[in-house]
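Structure (tokenized):
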């Protein structure tokens, strides 16, 4: 490695350079006991058993198993800070102003890079869902146990899972229209179905990557894509949002003896 850097007239600072070994979550690999040495100085590794657990790349924290655990913790902390502001001003400011605060302090953290880390599973993702619901109740000045779906409809705000679906379908739509860099477009293959009027997008990845972000993007596209001949990407996005808002508006609670519903009837 040192010879390669020297041959390409590149220099790095050994004490400021780290390395990471990425491998699938379910695969077991042998422990790497070797060392990466540059100019006689060993580089520090980033890993679960190391001092540094993750690295930041264009604003997204990446760990060696690609679980997005540390990134979700970081996003949850930032969203909680925005939620704290909404709670403090929920009785002082009008709803339009609180929506502006939400769009400035909460939504950017939920939406940035969601096509990458949105496929994560577990309690950290459910924590973000809970924090978003608390933010919506704070904007509406609603009780802690009130149904959040009608509030999403009233405020015109998308749930985090629908944020993922809208951004995923928007990205794949751009891939089909060849409006993205070629390096990204080559990760997908377009399959034209003979008995349907829509397309199916399949990531060109190995079997052990089926649960990664690429596979999740294709799954969301195949579930949500509809034929809109001649429509622009912006029009397609608006149609998706309109459909989700209609789902929120027609929400019905089927919980027996629901406390929240009983309180609303009084």
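Design, position by position:
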């Amino acid at each position: 490695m040192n010879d390669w850097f020297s041959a390409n007239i590149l220099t790095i600072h050994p004490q400021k350079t780290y390395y990471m070994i990425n491998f699938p979550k379910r695969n077991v690999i042998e422990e790497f006991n070797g060392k990466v040495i540059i100019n006689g100085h060993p580089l520090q590794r980033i890993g679960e058993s190391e001092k540094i657990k993750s690295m930041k790349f264009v604003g997204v924290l990446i760990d060696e198993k690609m679980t997005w655990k540390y990134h979700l913790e970081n996003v949850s902390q930032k969203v909680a800070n925005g939620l704290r502001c909404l709670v403090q001003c929920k009785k002082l400011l009008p709803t339009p102003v609180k929506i502006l605060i939400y769009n400035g302090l909460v939504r950017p953290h939920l939406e940035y890079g969601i096509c990458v880390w949105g496929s994560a599973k577990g309690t950290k993702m459910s924590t973000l869902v809970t924090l978003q619901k608390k933010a919506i109740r704070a904007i509406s000045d609603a009780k802690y146990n009130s149904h959040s779906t009608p509030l999403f409809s009233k405020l015109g705000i998308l749930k985090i899972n629908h944020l993922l679906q809208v951004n995923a379908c928007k990205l794949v739509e751009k891939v089909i229209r060849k409006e993205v860099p070629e390096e990204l477009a080559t990760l997908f293959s377009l399959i034209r179905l003979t008995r349907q009027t829509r397309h199916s997008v399949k990531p060109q990845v190995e079997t052990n990557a089926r649960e990664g972000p690429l596979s999740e993007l294709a799954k969301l596209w195949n579930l949500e894509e509809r034929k809109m001949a001649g429509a622009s990407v912006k029009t397609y996005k608006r149609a998706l949002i309109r459909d989700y808002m209609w789902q929120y508006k027609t929400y019905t609670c089927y919980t027996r003896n629901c406390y929240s519903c009983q309180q609303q009837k009084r």
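Reviewer-requested clarification: Residues 2-53 form one domain. Residues 202-209 have pLDDT under 50 and may be disordered.
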